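Write out the 3D structure for:
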Amino acid sequence: MSGSRVSPPAAFPDGGRRLVIYTIYDRRGGIDDYVVHALEGLRPHSARIVAVVNGDLTPSGRARLEPVVDEVIVRENSGFDIGAQRHALRHLSEELSQYDEIVLTNDTWFGPVRPFGPVFERMNARAVHFWGMTDHAEEDHNPVTGKGTLPYHLQSYWLAVRREMFTSDRWERYWREMPALDSYTDAVVQHEIVFAAAFGDAGYVADVAFTSDDYGCVNASLFAPRALIDDGCPVLKRRPFFHWPPFLDRYAVIGRWALDAAAEGGYPIEKALSNLARNVPPKVLNADAGLMDVIGADHPPYDPSRPMRVVVIAHIFYDEMTAEMVERADTLPMPYDLVVTTPDAERAERIRARIATLPGDRDSVDVRVVESNDGRDQSAFLIGCRDVLTSGRYDLVVKLHSKKTPQDGYNVGTHFREQQFLNLLHDDEHTSRVVALFQREPGLGLAYPPMIHIGYPTLGRAWWANKPGFELLAGELGIRVPLDDVSPLAPYGSMFFARPEALGILVEHSWRYSDFGGAEAYQDGGLAHILERMPSYAAGEAGFHTRTIVAPDYAAVSFTALDYKLDEMSATTPGYAFEKIDRLRAMGFVGKGSGKDFLRMYMRLNHMGTVHRLRRLMDPQRRPGRWIHRVADGVGRRWKKR
């Protein structure tokens, strides 16, 4: 190590050697495709790559990682990325002097979305002690600690340090004296926002490849991801795809445009979407990445030179709807197999007779009488058609059923059916373009209409009473995709396009008709209602993403209604939408606006400390009612491993 005097900064030498320390955390112990792709991109610019895994690494994960790095270190999951980097630096201490630059980076970015070469060439020529890929400007308010200012700093997901600095006593002391990092806040406060200042104040010279000042924002990696890509930044941070959507809305961050820019540069975005589908709440991802498609003329039609084998599975209780459902299925751009499930033999005969009179290009028709109607279309699909879904014969399944809601009145019931059928199987051109989505995107697992909101009180409450049971069942099935907070991303009405393998977790489970019985069978909290909300979470666990799809004419109706409702609901609360939401969520459940409700809201807004101490008394929404215990107990008994 050199003495306390700071050596002059130097450019990266011709023929110099670069060490990359890349840290990884995956709660499943695996290695995702995007990680392999990133490391392959770094390989031509690195003399040595060391991967440090926090936590577990499965044998299959190790087999994927070892070919693209020079060494794999597996350690306990402590200290976040910084703890892993310190571990690696100590592990490699004797050989560090062989290198001219060390890059400390991690798995929080997708890339290369543009070539690394030009950025390395540009930064190689600069005489610096250390440099970052992006920075964060100073802010008057520190959002991490809630007080004071947030100082200017280099973002720690990418810190490149030259020999003159990492062989110094100051470098060794920084890592030796670093305090324990027990939380994400600790990692930011004790390392990220102090690293540049700690060395800059000591006389070391820093630089940044892409500065936020050039983009008119404090954090370009979050607020200007597409502009960064357009300017040649090789990395796309993951955060714009899992940050709170109303906050990104405030700053007009359009994740879909960033993904489009990455794809235009040749990045295989299915690798990014697969990782995000497994680790981001699906409704959040749908909003942040803009995964809703208005199926129009800009969508290419089905390509018959790449044929797909399709089966339509239709549960028909109201046999008078047979013709309507089959005619919708006939909009498919290829011959298909039709499997119909129904509760009894009399209905089955009527359905067969109706189908026999209908024209259409169907390869086969199979009308099945299910053993029980407990669970209705859910049990018919997962039990009565398990052989179809697990046969391996089909690339795509279309699930339909004869949904009626007569209790809601003619207009509402009609709208529900139209919302489903128009957006799924609108006409020949629409359906052809929907199928083509699956041809173009091998990682697309499901496509279905967005959440219905006209005529239904789904907005803000679409979990209803199903979330406790959902959490229990997801744990039983091994689904670790995070749950959405307010409402799940789900095919309400339970009609969708899907790859059978995307539903594998649900299809392969040994369901029984008795699982769907009981007094709560058709109530919220019952298994059928829980399963209606589960397909995208099951698909996400398998690495498949979901797209919501809408026909242009329905989009016009839906958007104008939604726009007006949001405008009306926002009228009495000041600020941007995310500020309105923050304020309303802080108030808590409004209830009926009774005196007790207003007292509870007042206390939450003005005396939260007291509320924390008296929560069970003051906030009935936080107090588990007997029905929650009953549902949870029932779910635990019913779905415990047999």
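Residues 618-642 have pLDDT under 50 and may be disordered.
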